[in-house]
Amino acid sequence: MEAQSLPAALALVAGGGVGLSPERRAALGASLPLVQRDYRFERVWFWGCIQGLRGAYYIAEGLGPDRAAPRCRLYSLNCLDWSLLTPATKEMLALAEQVKGRFQGDPSFEYNLSEINAEAAARLMESGKEPVMKEEARLIATIEQIDREVGIVPRGAFVKTPLGSVHENRHFEGLSLVEAKKLSSYFHFTEPVNLKNKTLLEKANLDPSIDFLDSLEHDIPRGSWSIQLEKGGTVVVLRSLLWLGLTFYHVPMTKQFGYVYFGTGEKNLDLPFML
């Protein structure tokens, strides 16, 4: 969600019981504009918070002119001092899937992979690396995973230019209330996968400048999203059941939308058996 409109946006997703204390909100209001200035970002989004056993990680994302370009991510333990995170690698993502359980809240904490997965530890030792994974690397991989799987935007909020870059659609005035209740009106804000597998007949009715992302209607498992109307039917709220704690909001007929994550950073692997 936009850092500039953070207090109002947090009020719209507060129906799920998530939020920040007045002290944290004041700290973010003071520090995020400085992050935007110092790192020369065009926009700064407050991504959310991953709660650990001994502390919490507060995450922010910096965006450049091309909204589809890889985002710079930063984390803070106190909402004032921010540290830049390195981009996620395939190795990080693979190792993070092996680690189970809660985050500790200490970026320097090391997970011993030989106790978790002997095969993965053996492969690391063969390549001359220690069979350990720092919590900071797990944090990077978890944020990337959540953004890929449940980071969403409304249809039409972004447009793709003929040169391939993605920008905010200045003509986007929000979804109608009828459209806002449909999963097909929301897209994953990441590299499309299902779109490439569609036939030419299926692509015939799509607008290439707007429909360049995967929609939520074909997400697996089916039923992994909850759609609700809140604030007297004036706000549409989507909650992910796959990553519990991810909340998306959109005020129909306005440009107000965004998502935030408040959770433990653990994927709900039992979801297929719960539906």
Arithmetic mean pLDDT: 86
The biggest beta sheet is recorded as: 8 strands, mixed
Helicity level, as a percent range? Answer: 25-40%
The count of strands amounts to 14
Rg on CA atoms, Å:
19 Å
Portion of residues in beta strands equals 15-25%
| Coarse morphology | globular
In which order are the strands of the major sheet placed?
4-3-2-1-14-13-12-11
Give the structure's gist in a few sentences.
Helix content is about 25%, strand content about 25%.
Notable characteristics:
275 residues; alpha+beta; eight-stranded mixed sheet; two-stranded antiparallel ribbon; 9 helices; 14 strands; 27% helix
Walk me through the structure.
The structure is a single chain. By secondary structure, the protein is of the alpha+beta class. The chain is built from 9 helices and 14 strands. The protein has helices spanning 6-12, 22-39, 90-98, 113-116, 118-126, 135-150, 177-180, 200-203, 271-274, and strands at 43-51, 56-63, 72-76, 83-85, 110-112, 132-134, 152-154, 158-160, 166-168, 186-188, 225-230, 235-240, 246-250, 257-263. The strands form 4 sheets. It has an 8-stranded mixed sheet, with helices on both faces. The chain has a two-stranded antiparallel ribbon with strand order 5-6. A two-stranded antiparallel sheet has the order 7-10. A hairpin with a 6-residue loop joins strand 13 (246-250) and strand 14. Helix 3 crosses helix 6 (135-150). The radius of gyration is 19 Å and the shape is globular.
Note the topology.
Elements: H1 6-12, H2 22-39, E1 43-51, E2 56-63, E3 72-76, E4 83-85, H3 90-98, E5 110-112, H4 113-116, H5 118-126, E6 132-134, H6 135-150, E7 152-154, E8 158-160, E9 166-168, H7 177-180, E10 186-188, H8 200-203, E11 225-230, E12 235-240, E13 246-250, E14 257-263, H9 271-274
Parallel strand pairs: 1-14
Antiparallel strand pairs: 1-2, 2-3, 3-4, 5-6, 7-10, 8-9, 11-12, 12-13, 13-14
Helix pairs in contact: 3-6
